[in-house]
Write the structure tokens for this entry.
Amino acid sequence: MKYYPYYILLFVFLLTSCIKDEEANKECDILSAWVEGDQYKEWFYQPETDMRVNEVLYATNTITFTVKSMNSLPKIPLHFNITPGATIQPANGSEQDFKDGPVTYTVTSQDGSWKREYKVIFREAEFPTDYNFENFELTTYDIWLIKCSYYTWYEFDSKGNKINLWATGNQGFGMGNSNLKPEEYPTVPDANGYEGKCVKMQTLNAGKMAETVHKYIAAGNLFIGAFDVNSALTNSLASTKMGKNYTFTTEPIKVTGYYKYQPGAEYRDAENNVVPNKTDEADAYAVLYRNIDEEGNPVVLDGGNVLNSKYVVSKARVESLPPTNEWKPFEMVFKDVAPINPDILSYRGYNLALVFSSSKEGANFCGAIGSTLYIDKVVISLEKEK
């Protein structure tokens, strides 16, 4: 799904071109990270992929490795690919103890004027299934001339560790609307949930600058996955990295929750023309898919292929979310589109994506300004152990 207008891509491209080309000596980024050594393979479900993070998203300062168990985890020598000329501390390839929590690495640019801190986390595989949306925080994205703050959501695992499960298009929206307050973004917390707080998603005007390139709306959205600014430079759909590693050995059977929804007054097409007799719709769907291809390479689906990739094995989608000012339950049942392999489940070979949007066609910049979707008390139900 496209979550922000094209002018933002152009703006970011110009800025990052300066960073990448003209100011290369000021870069201080981790590009990838990996564990070396056959003796460490026994700690990972899929050593070929789990021992590597091939691409560290530019907007993140957290790198996570998933292991079978933290009990007796040895010291791990972690290796990094960093931007040319930069240095990293603790030293690249040095052994570190990750049992007691994250280890902070500091990358310093070649000229010494810029630093970035990254937290590296090792944790046991765990995927929460109950979402109350009570846990959120303000996140600031600050790169040269762009500085914006927006809301992000997170969960906790059974040991109280923070899990960055959720993503939104707020970051992209903020790049062109940094003058707005976080509460004025498409996806925000709301105090009046079904129980406690909830998530509010609203389709908004994308901003005056967006109008110059005929991109008029920004749909509110929330999805399990990650948002990648760099991918958006050439393909905005690829900026939405859908899904996280599904850690259960039984299949998901349905997704339930509560919602409120009201469509905006005027549905407009991608050229901002009013479409008579057409009403905006909200959307919700979930997808289970293979996370390794036939050659053993990692697979991460995005907004362009998450519903139709050959790696999808099961899908669930709401038939409709009728307008209502009162909290109403919803349910979507998974339907298999390919055989689900128990052996693949056992070694965590599937990813699960869950997506909500205030405008069903927001990916194509179609929808109604003011369409508003509230979501709360979402639960993924699993097949019982056999």
In short: Residues 6-22 form the longest helix (17 residues). DSSP finds five helices and 28 strands in the chain. The CA atoms of residues 62 and 383 lie 32 Å apart. The two ends are 37 Å apart (CA to CA).
